[in-house]
Write a structure and sequence with these properties.
Number of strands: 7
GO biological process, one term: regulation of DNA-templated transcription elongation
Largest sheet: 5 strands, mixed
Distance between the termini: 33 Å
InterPro entries: GreA/GreB_C_sf (IPR036953), Tscrpt_elong_fac_GreA/B_C (IPR001437), Tscrpt_elong_fac_GreA/B_fam (IPR023459)
Structural class: alpha/beta
Pfam families: GreA_GreB (PF01272)
Keywords: Kinase, Transferase
Protein name: Regulator of nucleoside diphosphate kinase
CATH superfamily: Transcription elongation factor, GreA/GreB, C-terminal domain
Order of helices and strands: EHHEEEEHEE
């Protein structure tokens, strides 16, 4: 599988770096994220393409094995509410998708093993 580089806004990059330093994510995910951040394309906040998963975006994804679809909004931890499909920016799935674009396929270690997801659609929310 072709590895694409992440697209990140300057503020999202800062958020991810801070999280990485104090995170308790698995060694696999931590190293993967560290490498992706190093190779990311960085944009001014207002210039980030609209189809990039970022803070304050809504993502519709599908598990490539099961076909099951999920839609959620990425928000700051204090706004998270799973009943409203609002997921913390620091949740494993948010970290996994951050910086990827519509059409990208990603692999991420979840509690039940490495899962593969395809990003079907990304929308900015306010």
């Amino acid at each position: 599988m072709e590895t694409k580089s992440l697209s990140l806004s300057k503020s999202d990059l800062k958020l991810l770096k801070e999280h990485l330093d104090k995170s308790n994510m698995s060694p696999y995910n931590k190293e993967k994220l560290r490498q992706e951040i190093k190779e990311a394309t960085i944009y001014a906040d207002q210039e980030l393409p609209s189809d990039v998963v970022c803070l304050k975006s809504e993502a519709r994804i599908a598990n490539t094995k099961t076909g099951k679809e999920f839609t959620f909004r990425i928000v700051m931890p204090e706004e998270a509410n799973i009943k409203l499909q609002k997921v913390s920016v620091f949740a494993p799935i948010s970290i996994a998708l951050f910086g990827y674009r519509t059409g990208d396929i990603i692999n991420w270690e979840m509690p039940d093993g490495i899962q593969e997801f395809k990003i079907l659609e990304v929308k900015k929310i306010s």
